[in-house]
Amino acid sequence: MISRRGFLGVLGGVGLAVAGCAETAGQGLTSALRLPEPFRVPLPVPKTARPVRPGHYEVVQRAAKVEIIPGTTTEVWGYGGTFPGPTFDLRRGSRTTIRVRNELPVPTSTHLHGGVTPPESDGYPTDLVVARGRGAGPPVGGHVHQARWTLHEEARDYVYPLDQRAATLWYHDHRMDFTAPQVWRGLAGFALVRDEEEDALPLPRGDREVPLMICDRAFEEDGSFRYPSVDPSLRVTAGVEEAYMEGVEGDVILVNGAPWPVMEVDAARYRLRLLNASNARRYRLELTPGGRFTQIGSDAGLLAAPVPHRTITIAPGERFDVVVDFADYPVGAEVTLVNTFGTGPARNVMRFRVARRAADDSAIPRRLSRTVPAAAKPVATRVFDFRRTGAAWTINGRSYRPGVPLARPRLGTTEVWRFTSDFHHPVHVHLAHFQVLSRNGRAPAATDAGWKDTVDVRPYEVVEVLVRFEGYRGLYMIHCHNLEHEDMAMMADFEIV
Ligand code: C2O
Ligand code: CU
Ligand code: CU
Asked: Could you tell me if residue 281 is inside a domain?
């Protein structure tokens, strides 16, 4: 069998045809079935996971047939057999164990994105759960021959102490070389951390607090997901990896797993927790016919004060916690969330229909959080260069080498990390949160506010962040959250010492 490394080697000459000119980070895949009419399917809200006993959850990763495109069925690989998986509604500081049982034909690793998690529960890509009697199979990926694999048969416990501020986190598969196809098939969900500071705020809640997982997919004629892959255990479609080196984009935009859904809302404030869970697609979100988002939180929690935006650019892995006031529109209005980076069907995301007047006792306080940590003085500066080297996506010229850290920051310190790039690379750091200091030597964008774990780095941009190493010692990762780039080894370890 040809290894992925070898496969890419053959294709060394392929250029980045659209790189740099477009706001898109990937190659479009066109669905083979007729696309449904937008704004017909009601917005689903993932159900909240119930603990089996206080602090303990169990979730089974399994295949299930679901109706995503009306009139067809799609096999998803989901946590709990749903896509998105259940939402874990968790409390700061309450140690939580999630037992993940794998009944899928492939190994998995679960990462809590944004979590301040001990290394052994962080979802390291070679730390795998395999279904009973399956074994890990050959390391098909090619670039991981020296990797030390840890295999858990059937199930394992992930332990999350959750010593962190209230925030919108998410969890997803992180298997070495196969994160992109496995997330594409559905292995992702929300995990919300709440705390007393946030509880005390008069923000919209209950039905007026809605997580929105935005991602794109493409479909085969029979309703199954379309994805190009070299893995024989996954579907192989035309045009394999070389065409998709930049990343895979679908032509159907899903919100919480439904195509261009519609949600009836009261003429009142809603808290929308926006997540871009796409493999490669970036969105520039706007409301039409006009309107604004009041950002209250970033990846890692509440902002000190709200920030208004007309548009929000959201890269894969990022979250924006926003409030939209539908009382600004007349009853009967249709307010569409659009993606002005998208063309054709990918320009629409979802629609809100303002159904009725309603009482609203929520408010957006001018001061949101008094516990936003101040940034400390950095003790070091390091550069991470995200770039294509020959036929590979690399960091500092290297493909991922598990267990070989590129940096050894000290626990309790702060450093400046400078990200440079040749393309769209949403850079994500595990465990450590950061603040954006500058873009190309200038002030950060309005949407860079707050503590974050993922930052949108654009072609030939230099983004400096102030990273704070808090929590645990051990091996963590920094990587590109374009999942195709990640699978092509655009990852590195760092070790907190
Ligand atoms: Cu959301 Cu290492 O990933
Ligand atoms: Cu992460
Ligand atoms: Cu990348």
From this structure: no
- State phi, psi for 247 to the nearest 5 degrees: 130, 160
pLDDT greater than 50 at residue 14: no
**For 32-44, what is the mean pLDDT?**
97
User: Given 164, 199, 234, which residue is the final one in a domain?
Assistant: 199
**Ligand 3 mean position to 39 CA, how many Å?**
32
In a domain, 447, yes or no: yes
pLDDT at 234: 45
Q: Which protein residues are within 6 Å of ligand 1, measured from CB?
A: 111, 113, 172, 174, 317, 428, 430, 477, 479, 481
Query: Which of 184, 199, 214 lies at the terminal end of a domain, its last residue?
Result: 199
Closest atom of ligand 1 to 486 CA is: 2
Residue with CA closest to ligand 1 atom 1: 113
Task: Please report the atom of ligand 1 found closest to the CA of residue 477.
Answer: 2
Q: Assess if residue 339 is contained within a domain.
A: no
Amino acid at 138: P
Concatenate the DSSP letters of all residues of 272-333 into one string. Answer: EEEEE--SS--EEEEEET---EEEEEETTEEEEEEEEES-EEE-TT-EEEEEEEGGGS-TT-
Over 50: is that where the pLDDT of 55 sits?
yes
φ/ψ of residue 295, rounded to 5 = -75, 125
Confirm if 298 and 168 have CB atoms less than 8 A apart. no
Q: Which atom in ligand 1 lies closest to the alpha carbon of residue 479?
A: 2
- Kindly state the tokens that stand for 255: 């919100």
Dist. CA 105–CA 420, nearest whole Å = 38
Q: Give me the pLDDT at residue 232, please.
A: 46
Calculate what percentage of the chain has a pLDDT beyond 90: 86
In this predicted structure, which of 119-128, 142-151, 179-188, 306-315 has the lowest mean pLDDT? 142-151
Q: pLDDT (tens digit, 9 = 90+) per residue, 350-375?
A: 999 999 999 999 999 999 999 998 88
Residue nearest to atom 3 of ligand 1 (CA): 113
- The answer to whether residue 463 sits within a structural domain is yes
**What is the predicted pLDDT for the residue at 133?**
80
Ligand nearest to the CA of 422: 3
Residue 401 sits in a domain whose CATH number is: 2.60.40.420
Q: How many separate domains does the chain show?
A: 2
Range of the domain at 188: 56-199
- Residues around ion ligand 3, judged by CB within 5 A, are 425, 480, 482, 485
